[in-house]
Amino acid sequence: MKVNITETILRDANQSLIATRMPFSDFEEILETLDQAGYYSLECWGGATFDSCLRYLDEDPWERLRKIKSKVKNTKLQMLFRGQNILGYKHYPDDVVRKFVAHAAKNGIDIFRIFDALNDFRNIETAVDEVKKQGKHAQGCICYTTSPIHNLEKYAAMGKQLEKMGVHSICIKDMAGIMGPQEAYDLVKALKESVKLPVYLHTHSTTGLGPITYAKAIEAGCDGIDTAISSFSGGTSQPPTETMNYAIKQMGYETSLNEKTLKKINDYFKTLRTGYISSGLMDPFVMGTETDALVYQVPGGMLSNLISQLKAQNAIDKLEEVLEETPRVRKDMGYPPLVTPMSQMVGVQAATNVLSGERYKTISKEIKSYVKGEYGQAPGEIDSELMKKVLGDEKPMTHRFADDMEPAFEKTKKELQGIARNDEDVLSYIAFPQIAETFFKKREERESKTVNYTITRK
Asked: In this protein, which residues make up the domain named Pyruvate carboxyltransferase (predicted)?
């Protein structure tokens, strides 16, 4: 049996360890080597890459994708797509979701890994349908978490739902690295017995469980895993590519990876890592093992956000209290999986509860929207006191929030006449209005300063 390996260095490893601050120029010359390594796919787009390109790197994310595609001819390019949220934190209307998928496909994405933070699959239907219409691979996700209401039967039922929707494969997405080896074995086995689709597993090394979890998942029939080249692996990133490749082959499976090419890739990124550490961009904190996540279920990105938030308010001494409050808030909210945007919402509310000295004295607008049902169906019962505080006598929404939304693409395109150069600019603006506007202005300034001249010889 062959195990497919997806390399995350261009997206999740970069996002997990250096907050997605790796510019295209840093990895451009290694792209052709990455393409020759024998990977099943290269995850290179989606998640925070879009926001980071526009906000920090002064790069057009669409242009970045086209440049990657021009160098990567043999390996599929993969992106992470947040269902109705696309790659932001709020829901967008269906016309925008479809337009985004169509342009991502046109510019080079082959595999769309699509998830909803609440596993409310009504919120991924439009994206899945459009990916299929574009002739690309739709991979539906199950966001993994543990709670009194999550069990194998529930996850197997989710797998059947995704299969019925027509996805081409299923990915179990373990954002916090909390899945243990036995849980992985049992869950993969349950899904393989429930559906006829390939099953992939995504985890992080945060708790140190990653490599053993992957090994047991493969024993149960897992078709593919996500890894990061070793110099950018471990900590809040993924388990190392070379280590997993070695172990998988020793277990009697094939991978298609070429060890000599992997060494070239790792040597290249090792040099980059040295520079990132010395500049302070890569913090040793995110490179270690954090077993507290097994207790609090806090993913690495969420933990670093909490630390920044508390430092900014001179309250870092309250971190332990905030971590203890986090599972309580999650319980009150009906046990949502801690994945974007839920992880940020739960974390911010836990911090607010601790710092104000009174639980839910102040409730964030995002939590209010969640309680109202705008993010989708909560996995479990929301605490009745919290419901009453937010809704009063109102009833929460039971239909899909996007059904209430007016089409937005053509309207926004008209508004941006003379500012947006193409449909991709319009989509960038819809996703991140202020950041995109600043980017467009900078782009104009940069280009107006470029002087073209010719030398004539006499």
From this structure: 3-263
Residue with tokens 């040099």: 271
| Confidence (pTM) | 0.94
**pLDDT (mean) for 264-289:** 91
User: Could you give the CA distance from residue 308 to residue 209 in angstroms, rounded to a whole number?
Assistant: 26
Q: Write down the pLDDT at residue 300.
A: 67
Architecture category of domain 298-402 in CATH: Orthogonal Bundle (1.10)
**Nearest 5 degrees, angle CA 414-CA 400-CA 346?**
95
For CA atoms 225, 230, 232, 233, the dihedral sign is positive
Q: pLDDT tier at 413 (50, 70, 90 boundaries)?
A: very high
Is there a contact between 204 and 177 (Cβ–Cβ < 8 Å)? Answer: yes
**The two three-digit tokens of residue 22, written as one number:** 């790796």
- Cα-based torsion angle of the residue sequence 426, 430, 432, 433 in order, rounded to the nearest 10 degrees: 80
> How many Cβ atoms sit within 10 Å of the Cβ of residue 395?
9
For residue 341, whether the previous peptide bond is cis, meaning omega lies within 30 degrees of 0, is yes
Using alpha carbons, select from 146, 175, 141, 118 the residue that is nearest to residue 303: 175
Segment 107-149, tens digit of pLDDT:
999 999 999 999 999 999 999 999 999 999 999 999 999 999 9
